[in-house]
Amino acid sequence: MARRRKPKLAVWKFASCDGCQLTLLDCEEELLTLAGEVEIAYFLEASRAVVRGPYDLSLVEGSISTPEQVDQIREIRRQSRFLVTIGACATAGGIQALRNFADVRGFLDLVYARPEYIKTLEKSLPASAYVPVDFELRGCPIGKGPLLELISAFLNGRRPNIPNHSVCIECKRRGIVCVMVAQGIPCLGPVTQAGCGALCPAYRRGCYGCFGPMETPNPASLGDWLLAHGMTSPDLVRLFRTFNAYAPAFREAGDRYAEAANPDRSS
Amino acid sequence: MADPEVRIPAPGSLWRMEKAQLQTLLEALAQQGYTIIGPRIQEGAIVYDEIRQISDLPIGWTDEQDGGYYRLKRREDEAFFGYAVGPHSWKRFLHPPVFSLGQARRNGQGFEWIPPADPPPRYAFLGVRACELHAIAILDRVFMGGPYVDPVYRARREALFLIAVQCTTAGGTCFCASMGTGPKAPPGADLILTELPDAFVVEIGTERGAALMAGVPCTPATEADRAAVEARLEETARSMGRQLDTADLPALLYRNLEHPRWEEVAQRCLTCGNCTMVCPTCFCFTIEDLSDLAGTRAERVRRWDSCFTTAFTYTAGHPIRQSAKARYRQWLTHKLASWWDQFGTSGCVGCGRCITWCPVGIDLTEEVRAIRETDGAMASERR
Ligand code: SF4
Ligand code: SF4
Ligand code: SF4
Ligand code: SF4
């Protein structure tokens, strides 16, 4: 079917590891079809050729962590009909948001010989802290299936079939035996958004929460259950503060157990 | 002495079968082209999967179950069926968790519809417990009872061969005795087995069951065998891990829709949906339409869904049941009350799966007890 004009796709990178962009390059078979359906206008990871905006679909990887990036994301928003953030960095601030829990100047002094040359923001934040976002594609990294589903939905003018419910529902559909109940392994599946197909429980590991909080998360209940079954507050802080440490529900849970672990340090 | 193999089993008759002869029975089923699904150990639990011989069964194993807790344990004996139900239910074979309803392929100006190709599997289920027979009867009513019959379910159900096993061990979260759904098997199975220490007592349920047993060596059950079966069932009924007082249950729940207990359980509920996934009667599904990048192929897929997701009640721009309280209350009152209005039975058969497999051990029998003990708590405050 001939579309009038091929939609223009742009892929942007902020503070991130490139893993999510690589997911797109990893779509080997589908990549040719994709190139037939969209004009890949900006994707430095794949090509130096750059087509000017505006863009129909912008995929944004990475968190916003410098003043310059704030201007960039605002400009990208202005140039984009649809802006979709991809991955834990762009949707929640990423693993680098761990610095949000401490004073960033302390790190600068420790890491850089001349910290005065470094311009950085206090916090590593998701794009949505600065601009409106049309859709968030979760994961650390995002999955190939959901990415193709998102682009297909965009091209066909429909809503993507990307659920916001728990990992547990995917886990049970696959018939995996629950590692929490049958083996006492802590698992973030009940508070984490589906999308990975319950990858870790399938390998007898608890979910690490890389898809971030599910739609109506209750991490305090899960955390208190784990606390009553042998985990300590510092264990729980480590459990909740990983790739999505600064996503509101996980942040609150991390803070809750950090406070329990260190009551005098909380104000 | 009469040859024990020369006999004509009739529906309703009881036979004594050496344990090793279960193998003969499995072979007879396989010969008739059935795919046999039965209990076996996987990932630290007893699940339902394909089995070929009796050595695939969890012989000598049992389970320890409690709220949010399941562990396998060695038994002191070599019982074949000395455990209760695990995380899987037969629902996953009759109502598959993910099922492609068909594909559409663009051709020229129109499109071509490609229905699911494979012929439906012919299953024989081995080790179906009393509560599970009740659950299958409930699913029959849901999927085949009204004017709109589900073809996916019907194709699997009509080809099904059912071998029940009456429980001689109750699980830590079982309460079939309260629900009137066990441990004695209701009618419906082709064969009903009860395990004694040294043999199985086999009751012939149907003509199909009789025909299968005709090829399996066995002898007529004695009075002592009958008495042993009854004694074992009574013992199982006495050792239920949980209890639920069902007196006037729908009315109790309906008049307590604003009871403060719903808010308390919502504080603990993760809205993760595990309880609905493991429940042998929860039947809800969602339909997804997928299309490919080039827009030349579309697919319609059905997946198990849960009343604990917000998308489940997404209507006119927003989900109706926003709070965990509204969702837990919907689930519990549907299972125990409005199911009666909708289908004429309870939606709960007392298998205890939702208790065991809830990651935070929420227990519906406890929730109902709490409401019963403080019946009308909110209502009296309001008046
Ligand atoms: S293993 Fe984890 S994701 Fe799977 S059902 Fe259990 S808690 Fe949920
Ligand atoms: S199970 Fe959890 S940690 Fe593992 S891939 Fe999925 S979301 Fe990530
Ligand atoms: S509600 Fe719970 S106990 Fe009742 S049938 Fe479902 S899983 Fe079993
Ligand atoms: S009752 Fe338990 S299993 Fe069910 S949704 Fe709540 S936390 Fe999950």
In short:
The complex is a heterodimer of chains A (267) and B (383). With 267 residues, chain A is an alpha/beta fold.
Describe the model:
The complex is a heterodimer of chains A (267) and B (383). Chain A is α/β, with parallel strands linked by helices. In chain A, 39% of the residues lie in helices and 10% in strands. Chain A is built from 12 helices and 5 strands. Chain A has a 5-stranded parallel β-sheet with strand order 2-1-3-4-5. The longest helix of chain A is centred in the C-terminal third of the chain and has 14 residues, at 248-261. Chain A is globular and about 60 Å long. Chain B is an alpha+beta fold and 383 residues long. Chain B has 2 domains: 14-238, no CATH class; 249-373, no CATH class. Chain B contains 14 helices and 16 strands. In chain B, the strands form 4 sheets. Chain B has an 8-stranded mixed β-sheet with strand order 3-2-8-9-10-11-1-12, sandwiched between helices. The longest helix of chain B has 20 residues, at 324-343. The radius of gyration of chain B is 23 Å and the shape is globular. The interface between A and B is large, with 45 and 48 residues. The complex binds iron/sulfur cluster (4 copies).
